[in-house]
Write a structure and sequence with these properties.
This protein has 70 residues and is an alpha+beta fold. The chain is built from one helix and three strands, in the order ββαβ. A hairpin with a 4-residue loop joins strand 1 and strand 2. The longest helix has 8 residues.
Length: 70
């Protein structure tokens, strides 16, 4: 499912402290890559994101659902 659009709403996990914030980055953010994970909820996907190694280097992981298409 490459190239799928993402929903506007989501959560961000930031830094080694793994701080969770509501919402996406915003319009000025460039995405460097993405992973698709299976989760039963946004909360479960956010918990999975807390294991991403990029957080140890002050990175941010954006967690957003894939937009449903008809």
């Amino acid at each position: 499912m490459t190239g799928a659009q993402l929903e506007a709403a989501g959560q961000c996990v930031r830094g080694a402290q793994k701080i969770v914030a509501e919402g996406a980055f915003g319009s000025d953010h460039l995405m460097g890559g993405y992973f698709i994970v299976s989760a039963s909820s946004l909360e479960q996907a956010t918990e999975l994101a807390k294991g991403c190694p990029v957080l140890q280097n002050s990175g941010t992981v954006e967690v957003r659902p894939i937009m449903e298409t008809d």
